[in-house]
Amino acid sequence: AAIAAGRVSSGDAGRLGMLVPAVFLGLLLTAAFVTLGAGRWALSLPLFEGASLGAPPVAQAETATAAANGSWVDGFIPSNLFAAAAGTNLLPLMVFALAFALAARRLAEPLQRTLQDLAVATRDTLFVLVEWLLVLAPLVLLAVGLRAGAADGLKVGGGLLAFVGLEIALLLFAILVLYPVTALMGRVPLRRFARAAAPGQFAAIATRSSLATVPILLRSARETLGQPGATAATVIPLAGAMLKLSRAVVGPCKLLFLGYVLGIPIGPGDLVVFLVTILLLSPATVGLPSVTSGGKSLPAYVAVGVPAEYVVLLGTTTAITDVFQTVLNSTSYLSASTLVTRFARRGTAVETPALETAPSSAPEGAVS
Questions:
Q1: Is residue 53's pLDDT more than 70?
Q2: Cα(209)–Cα(201) distance, rounded to whole angstroms?
Q3: How far, in Å, CA of 302 to CA of 65, rounded?
Q4: Which residues fall within 8 angstroms of residue 205, CB to CB, at 6 or more apart?
Q5: Whole-angstrom Cα distance, residue 332 to residue 44?
Q6: Residue 57 has what pLDDT?
Q7: Which of 19, 84, 286, 326 has the most crowded CB, counting CB atoms within 10 A?
Q8: Can you tell me the distance from the alpha carbon of 114 to that of 214, in angstroms, rounded to the nearest whole number?
Q9: CA neighbor of 42 nearest in space, from 160, 173, 238, 200
Q10: Mean pLDDT of 156-166
Q11: Which residues, 6+ apart, have CB-to-CB distance to 203 below 8 Å?
């Protein structure tokens, strides 16, 4: 709905096409290097002396096999759009939605208006539906948390608790780093960016879905930061599909911790190969609540000598740290849009589209 109603010239579109991947890559590399530096320092503290994972459970054969044979690659280029819609990889669907919206702008005015009305009506209906779901979310999340704690809480070892603490600290640090980076490079006041990011962050905490924060981030980008609507409508949904800063933090954090606990030396060459693999897998991360992780990135750890079963073992802590990963991803979407807007304004401008607003009863954390 946002892109179809936007008006971006061919020159501006080409400029955005170059800026978006550059900004995404820059944010991913920044998060990865910050994590490596802060993670190495944190592991040198006395707090982590004697940390151990004991004897890990055997990794599930099908998870290791699927990761080792590279079957995750198939999700990037689906042979059937409807089959992809039934799966968990949202990247091809997001790319299709972007291409479909751009193509819709070439229709005749009556047909274009009909299609836009349908998209807006569907969007606003989903806003109301998600509002109903969010009313029940606190009770449901409390019940799920109590069940998980009663079943597995006493089984979590000291090593896993140490890893959870390290990962949460690094995720929070990465979130804090985004503020000065965005304020300085995006030329926006720090308080204004913080005020714009806050609603999306609260929605991320409530839903544990970074995709659910896309609509409110679009609104914050336009109303609080004054970004051109067409730019935000292109960057933020694309970031929701492809930019997962949590991968650039969790991956190196997990590698450093396992190398430290298991005594595995990790050289500069191993780090380079690992980071390239992890960053390429960023689009494969679905912006939905997760309870485990590590299957798709398993070959990257095995390649540097980390036993697969330990990666799977640490993946079980995702249910605890997922909310912090979601907040980081949501904040990075708005940060990316701010940086792209700043760089795109150097010598060019993008017209803000006249886009219908959602009904007043719609929640700001609705799914796009």
A1: no
A2: 10
A3: 12
A4: 323, 326, 327
A5: 29
A6: 46
A7: 326
A8: 24
A9: 173
A10: 78
A11: 212, 213, 216, 330, 363, 364, 365
Report CA-CA distances (Å) from 196 to 90, 112, 330, 335, 342: 26, 32, 11, 10, 16
Strands (E), 28-112: none
Q: How far apart are CA 144 and CA 150, in angstroms?
A: 10
* pLDDT (mean) for 291-307: 70
Query: Which SS3 state, helix, strand or coil, does residue 7 take?
Result: strand
pTM value > 0.85:
no
Angle at 294 between CA 158 and CA 274, to 5 degrees: 100
Maximum C-alpha span of the chain:
69
Q: Kindly tell me if the per-residue pLDDT of 125 is higher than 50.
A: yes
Calpha distance 238→289 (Å, rounded):
19
> φ and ψ at 51, to 5 degrees?
-65, 135
CA–CA distance, 230 with 227 (Å, rounded to integer): 9
Residue 18 near residue 11 (C-beta atoms within 8 A): no
CB 328 within 8 A of CB 174: yes
User: Distance between CA 325 and CA 89 in Å, rounded?
Assistant: 18
309-359 per-position pLDDT tens digit: 788 778 777 878 888 999 999 999 999 999 998 887 764 444 434 344 444
- 17-21, 36-40, 82-86, 312-316: least confident range: 82-86
The confidence band for 207, taking pLDDT boundaries of 50, 70 and 90, is confident
Q: 208-219: b or e for each residue (b if 16 or more CB lie within 10 Å)?
A: bbbbbbbbbbbb
Is residue 362 a contact partner of residue 127, using CB atoms and an 8 Å limit?
Answer: yes
Query: String of b and e for 7-24 (b: at least 16 CB within 10 Å)?
Result: ebeeebeebbeebbeebb
Place of tokens 């998209």: 119
345 dihedral zone (left: phi>0; alpha: psi -120 to 50; beta): alpha
When mean pLDDT is compared over 75-79, 298-302, 320-324, the highest value belongs to 320-324
Distance between CA atoms of residues 213 and 207, nearest Å: 9
Entry field: residues in the chain: 368
Please state, in angstroms and rounded to a whole number, the distance separating the CA atoms of residues 40 and 256. 7
Beta-strand runs (E) in the chain: none
With a pLDDT cut of 70, the percent of the chain lying above it is 66
